Every structure is written in C-alpha cells, then in structure tokens.
Amino acid sequence: MSSKGSTVLASSILEEATRCETLLYKNCGPRILSGWDSIASRVPKVPCPDCRRNIAFHELETKTVAQSNGFSTNYRCPFCRNVIRNVAELL
Q: What is the pTM of this model?
C-alpha cells in the first residue's frame, strides 16, 4: 500500500473512531469517555529528533518492506516528515 493509501486509510479509521466516540457520548455520557482519555494518555510517545514534537506511537508513519532476510520498517514523523531511526531507543 502506498503512503497515500495508508494516509487515506488512517484518515478513514480516524473518522470512524470520531463517529463512534460521538455516539458513545450521546448514548452513555461523559463517564465512558473518561476511560478512553486515560487509555489515550498512556500511549507511548516518541520525541521527533528534528521538530521536537512528541508523537504518539500509533501516529508515526510507517513503511514496511519485505526482504529476503525478513522485513525492514522505516518510521517517519507525520509533522516534519523526518525519518526517525532507533524508535525503540526513543520510547
């Protein structure tokens, strides 16, 4: 899948999550969403070495390529597009 396709897919997922969150709020009130906020606040964040923003791990743009000896994954900041190396060390 191209990075454009990944962006479109991520955008669709975000729209669906927002729709579900709105329905939860309308039907169950704010008490349900407070649990979601506590989960979202615990998502690991990675500091971008270039723009210095803290990026939630699930927000990183990824590109995985199959190779003969396994897989190679590159990570990129969604804000400045800088390639982030050694993500595991930054967590």
A: 0.51
